[in-house]
Every structure is written in structure tokens, then in C-alpha cells.
């Protein structure tokens, strides 16, 4: 029997029961659409996070105090040194670094006139804007200069500026943080969440000023921008060696952006897989639906099967004919599911344009493969029942 | 070409056994027109199924064109049915979703005949049964007689050696029945072996040879050439003109 004839024969049989065919095709379509859509959303979430980190720059090293380890073994174990401005100065001199920025953090109320807003206050230096690739909406960033010089400049995040000034031009105005007065020199361009902070919701002041005002001796982070991406590992080891020498202990943690990305990425991959797993359940249900339809079909078409056998159809031809029906159901369902999924993803992107949701090619290929697999897997048993029918008994009844 | 020797067909029903055929011996030669007649349950359909290679004897030998069918594999028997045997059924067994032409093409579809040749041969077969102008009609658009003629076209389209017809007129009115029988007989005259199962004496009488069956046994022969001799030891074949068997009264009804 020719392959095209087989397909045409199977398609003809399916057309004979339009409603039943449509329903089982819908079942598979929903399953495949769910797989494709959820994969696309999961993949989109992963891509979104990766993009966010990539925006930090691929050459970023982040140092923070403390080390993840087991403590308590020795009586005075677990002592950690603070991360200080002097550490920052020493690190900044490393030749593999292009630039670096310290970060001190406190939360306080920023006031202008009678309006006030509780915000994170970041103390840093001029290089912070370059390391974190900040763009200015208006004005300028903190002035370059000796980090020990604590000026009274302040840069506002976009939301902070618009909430406090309500349309007034903030540049050159004086705001208060606690009892201290700062002069607004610039407003950041919109940036949103990045690393720990929503940069639209922060204010930035010179690091020395911040430490004095908030009575801090320790830095929250030191950010380092490595010159060459190839030297990331080397730079990381140099930084660790230097800190060990200065603190006489391994009490700081140095992470690269790559490590952050890969850990987030693997979390989100697991999430995607979980979503796909859930969606696959609906596909399995659709498969059982196909099996049901095919079983009904075999029972209902006993006379036809008997006839085909009487006409000299071989058992494997009968098997192929019924299997082809199941596979055809699943395949049409799969294609319809892809179309529905594509529509759903497009609608989603229409609502959230910044979310990069698109089904990865492997997901499209896998779901088509999956639908064919469902057709074969759930079609074999009914088709085998068809071949086992005794033609005499099958023909006896009308 | 068809030869049954001491054929039994036994079904197991619960704890007991039912003998659908008991020790049947029969020979049908090429080009014959044979009617199998008997009441329902007499074993004539079982006999037809065995002759048609749809079923196998429980005991005994069945030779089709000198090949022992019991020894053939499932696939070989399918190929035998495909190429050498045509079936005509009481309920036509046309596929309702296919046109008359499509139904006639069906055996060739499974034989892998190319589409063009298939269409041509099916059209030719439909023309031979006088339905060329109904080729595109579906079975539900055809009368009973027309349906059976489509079924006959399907049965002969592979150019078989024998056509086995199981109550071919059982569902037809008198006029259509006559048409169908005339069609089958015309094919028989051109050399096709024809075996018709019926319980209608009027149909049976048209055959040159009538085999009467009851309770799974051959109980009588009219006008045929071979009968079973039960008198002497094992089964033997004797000519029907033997005085011992002529005018034998059938045990079952006609």
C-alpha cells in the first residue's frame, strides 16, 4: 500500500466523524499550545533575567563581606573584617581593573519642602555610573575626585525626583536627608530593578559623606570592572589574594556576573521544565482521548475491518491504517496547538512588550515530535485490537 | 480447484463443543456455478468462510488451487484472498464514506496499485456491472441492487478465480435479485467460478449444482458432479450419477 494512499484512506475515515475528530484534535491542540506557551514564557523569563544581568556588564566583579562557611569550630572562629574604604583604595590600584566603585547603603527619609520619601541612600563615587552603566536623565552624576572628600552633592532616582518635585526642576535645589542638606546635581534616566535595588527609587551621595552621615565604617559592596573579559578568573583570584592579605582571613565573597547569571539561569530552567511538565500532563490526557476515540472507532468499524481483511488487506496494513488515523489526529492537533500557542504568545507580548517571550526552536520541534509520539503511543493499542479482529466474526454483524 | 477432505470446524462454547462442519468432503472445479443451500445454522456460511480462507478447518484438509490452506501463514492467506477470491455479502459491506468508484478501488489500494491504473480498472469494472454513470455516488445514494452491483464490481476487480457470494440477494427485492444473479451468472459463463450461499430455492435452482446442507453435513446434491460416499470406509469421491445418491431427500428444509 502506498504511503499517500494510506494517509488519504486514514484522512477519509477521520472525515467520516467530523465532531469526534474535531474534539480529539482540540484535546491535542490544547496540550501542545500549553507546552509551547509555557515554554516560551519560562524561556522568556530566563532571557529577561539574563538580559538584566547582561546590562550590568559582563566584566563585573562584586565583593561583599562575609564568607559562606561553617563557623563555630574554634572558640574565636568566624570573625569577619569589615569591608572598608581602604580596602577599596587598595583594590582600585590592581592593574587588571579598569575602574571600581564602593557602595555604602542606608535607608533614610529624603525631604524637599514638606514632602518626604523613605529611600535607600547609596554612598558611592563617580565611577559607579560607569561600572553600573547608569545614564543621566538630566544634570550630571556625582563629581569625580578623591573618595575621601565628602561633598554634599546628591543624585536622585527618577521616581524619587518626580515624587518630591512634582514637575519642578530639581537641579540645583536643596533636599534634606535627615538633618543634612544636599544639592541636587542630577536625575537618573529610568532604569528599574537592577541587582538589589530599584534604581528609580534610590538617591546617591558621595561615599565618604554617606559613611559619616550614617555613622558607618563598613561598605556594603565593592564593584569592580575588569579590563578584559578573558582575565575575569585571574582578576578574581588576585582580588581574593589581596583581600586575604589585608584581612589575614578569607572573609569576603567575590562573585562574577557569570556566576550570578548561571545560577539564576538554572533556577529558571528548572522553572521552565516544571511548567513544561505540567503542560505535558494535559498532553497525556489528550493522548488518552485519542486512544479512546480510536477504540470507539475500532469497535464501531468492525465490519469495515472484517471487509478489509476479506479483501486481502494484510494485518500490518490494517495496523498501519488505524495507526495513521491516530497519528494524523495528533499531528493536526499539534500543528493547531502551535498556531494557538503562537497566538497566545503574541497576545502576551502585546500586553507586556518588554518581556522577550518567544518559544525556542527546540520547543517547537519537540512539541511536534511529542504530538506524533502521542499519536503513535496511544494509537498502537487500538490499532492492534483492529488487527486482532476475527474477520468472520467482524463480518457476521451488519 | 477447491477441494475439502474430511473437514471439521468445531467451536468451543462454554464447556461444550459445537460442530459447525462435520466431516465435509467436497470438490468444486474451475468454472462451476455451485449453490450451497440449507437452513440457518446448517454450516453453509462456515463452509463459505473456510473456502474463502477467512477461517481454517479444525480437522481435515482444504486445498485451494492445490495449496494446503491450513499450512499457509496469515499473510499468505490474505494474499490468496486478495488475488484469487472475491467476496459478495448480504449486507453489501460498502464503505459509506467512499464513492462507488472508491469502494471498487479498495482491494487495489491495499495491493499498492498506482492511482491511475486503479481508477481505470475500477471504472472498467463499474462499467461491466452497468454503473458507469453512478461512479461518483456514495452508497447511500444508490439502491440496494445498485449497491450489490458495486460490491460485485469490487469482488471481480482483482480478476479472481472464484467469487463467493453469501446470500447476495437476501436484502434485495425480486427484480434487483434477478439482476444481480444474472450479472454473476454472466461472469460465470466467462469462466469465473461462482459459489453462492442462499436459503432461497429460486436462487439455488439457477445453479448447475446444488449442495444441500444440514447440521454441518452435506446431505444432498442436485445436478452436480461429485458427492460424498458414506458407505465404504473413509471418505471417497464418487460421481453424482451414482444410483445410490440420486434423489436423496434433504434432511433440512429448502
TL;DR of this structure?
The complex is a heterodimer of chains A (398) and B (254). By secondary structure, chain A is α+β, with helices and mostly antiparallel strands.
Write a concise keyword list for the protein shown above.
heterodimer; A: alpha+beta; 2 domains; 12 helices; B: alpha/beta; 7 helices; disordered C terminus
Description:
The complex is a heterodimer of chains A (398) and B (254). Chain A is an alpha+beta fold and 398 residues long. Chain A has 2 domains: 185 residues, no CATH class; 168 residues, no CATH class. Helix content of chain A is 55%, strand content 18%. Chain A has a 6-stranded mixed beta barrel with strand order 2-3-10-5-7-6. A two-stranded antiparallel sheet of chain A has the order 8-9. In chain A, strand 2 and strand 3 form a beta hairpin. In chain A, helix 2 runs antiparallel to helix 11 and helix 8 packs parallel to helix 11. The two termini of chain A are 27 Å apart. The model of chain A has no long low-confidence stretch (mean pLDDT 85). By secondary structure, chain B is α/β, with parallel strands linked by helices. Chain B has a single domain, classed as P-loop containing nucleotide triphosphate hydrolases (Rossmann fold, 3-Layer(aba) Sandwich), CATH 3.40.50.300. In chain B, 31% of the residues lie in helices and 29% in strands. In chain B, the strands form 3 sheets. Chain B has a 6-stranded mixed sheet, sandwiched between helices. In chain B, strand 4 and strand 5 form a beta hairpin. The longest helix of chain B is centred in the last third of the chain and has 16 residues. Chain B is globular. At the A-B interface, helix 1, helix 9 and helix 12 of A face helix 2 and helix 3 of B.
